[in-house]
Design brief:
The longest helix is centred in the last third of the chain and has 19 residues. The mean pLDDT is 96. With 375 residues, the protein is of the alpha/beta class. The protein has two domains: 241 residues, Type I PLP-dependent aspartate aminotransferase-like (Major domain) (Aspartate Aminotransferase, domain 2), CATH 3.40.640; 118 residues, Aspartate Aminotransferase, domain 1 (Alpha-Beta Complex). The chain binds pyridoxal-5'-phosphate (PLP). Pyridoxal-5'-phosphate binds next to helix 4 and helix 5. One of its GO terms (molecular function) is pyridoxal phosphate binding.
Amino acid sequence: MNSQLPIPFIDLAAQRRRLGDRIEKAVREVMDHGRFILGPEVDRLEKDLCEFSGAKNAITCANGTDALVLSMMALEIGDGDAIFLPSFTFSASAESVVLAGATPVFVDICPDTLNIDPAGLLAGFEEARTAGLRPRAVMTVDLFGQPADYSSIAGFCGEKGLLLIADAAQSFGASYQGARVGTLATVTTTSFFPSKPFGCYGDGGAILTDDEDIADLLRSLRVHGQGSDKYDNVRIGMNSRLDTLQAAILIEKLSILKDEIEARQDVAARYKHGLEDRVISPDVTDGVVSAWALYTIRLPEARRDAVQDGLLELGVPTVVYYPRPLHSQPAYAEYPAIDLPESEAACSQVLSLPMHPYLEEAVQDLIIEGVNKLI
Ligand SMILES: *Cc1c(COP(=O)(O)O)cnc(C)c1O
């Protein structure tokens, strides 16, 4: 048993072993040609991302937070605009709204999927109106890898004339009713932070869109609002490019992503089977394939911390994503929030277990046994 310890929460080393020397070779090629900024691998990766996702355009950038900010800049979202998003998410989702100059309006989540509740959007919409804001967009977050309820949300957006922005930082590789993430919203953003389902060896991000005009704007915005070149400044932009080295690494990793997403389905199914009835397992909607960024169970609030401590003693690392909803964080105190009981409840009950495509059955059995014993 000790030979399996410590158990990694996410095993990037196993992925690297699988890829052999492909990454070293790809990195060496970039070192040799020396085009470290927007080199040929960036172009190639953008083409590969389109092919993989089915999106018409992919624009890479420096990280997933910038991908959101750049998207809102391209959509001319700013002062006085209300963006509806879940409170139960990573801070970057809401932070990007504020950085773009707009106002986040927090909406509650569905208790089964932990994603934004389409039924809560109307209350948010009214709240924004009351606050004198202009409703502009819904930002879905595909939490823990599961795409949000896009058909209901797109319906609401159509009815109210709102844009749809998908924060798919955790869900690249997932699909919804046969369509891959990247094609489900006006713009879709993702992050290549190392621990995401599709990550690089540093920071990185991308935006996917079918809209050619938005794509052209994004290509300008990521290089200081350039026109014909960097020294022709036609708008205010920023410096947000993906390093060629990271693009070269991502090209290699993308070639095994489909296989990895499939392996994650097996890991998730084994967890569900092994933990059945003792905890609340994540619920994936019919027709949806999650990227399983995380496997997050729910436990009675009174037991959660004890189970986490007990697992740590067994050598099993777990993480609470997220301990506090954003609307109750000091940084967001001034923004509108309706009553969000499901977001509050989730924060006190969730626990994420080790999750990655290379989790061996024996190790997983040990984790499952530990949870079942402690609960
Ligand atoms: C990771 C993450 C981001 C931000 O991505 P970075 O690349 O770290 O900037 C945004 N939204 C969600 C939901 C995330 O999980």
